[in-house]
Amino acid sequence: MRYTTLGRSGLTVSRACLGTMNFGTSGGGACEETEAARIVDAFLDAGGNIIDTADGYTGGQSEEIVGRAVKSRRDQVVLATKAFLPQGPGPNDRGLSRIHLTKALESSLRRLGTDYIDLYQCHQWDDSTPIEETMATLDGFVRSGKVRYLGCSNFSAAQIVESQWAAQRTNAAPFISLQPQYSLVARGIEAEILPACRRHGLGTLVWSPLGGGVLTGRYRRGVVPDADSRMGRLKASALPMARAWADGLLNEPNLDIAGHVVETAAELGMTPAAVALAWVRHRPGVTSVIIGPRTLEQFHGNLAGLAKELPSETIAHLDEISRSAGTTIVNGMSTPR
Predict the structure, then answer these.
(1) Which of 75, 163, 251, 280 has fewest C-beta within 10 Å?
(2) 169 within 8 A of 138, measured Cβ to Cβ
């Protein structure tokens, strides 16, 4: 397992990050607790140390499952979670206000069964709350010892800059990380977001490196996705946002790119998923790659893919065929994640 520091901090994290959005059986989850615990143990045994969850994943089940799974090995884990998503019906039950973040943090600590969180992240931007209020509130968490480092997810370049400037103005702890979407079919962060991260001291924990599963070669033109696949579940979702996200990924350009990945994998004797993951790991500005397995078998396949080295000519070919590809999602409001 390779390691590096996260952003402009002394926090060391593994180049693979275990994402747990699938842990649980409610709210779209597809991984029972027993299997999730096996995945967590295998990840830590392999030398991985950063595990990411969120209060909005599977109705809170993900945090509960992660907390129980790491309880006996808590000191080995960089535990990351996120807040923003609705936690109730009230007007103050969502967002990045002081009132909501304070309640959300206490709830996450309870579900995770811990008294501190290593990396506490804003799940997305909140237009209705002054960023100075958010950063001052988060700084209070750090000063209290309940949080050690701060990060954000799905922020635009301008929002990153605003946040870091607000932290400076209020003498507050800054963000050290960003979680952006990034893959061969989602390269929108390269133009402005990755440069902003470099300038303002943020490492990156990139999510959906397999393009929602599109880059595994599982989906074909004119073929309805299997009901048990991620795209199948999204297309059957009652949420219009989820259906739109699936339709946006399963478009002609992205399926063309997936076809090239399948061909490249066959030439190299690799799986398509391994090719897609290895490409992401090679990219400048990527600190750690979030993998979100539903089974232990998927976990081992993903970890093996991240360890692969691609020939330079293969990287150049994949860069070229994906350069104009299209799913550019930089705001969590646009995705069901």
Answers:
(1) 75
(2) no
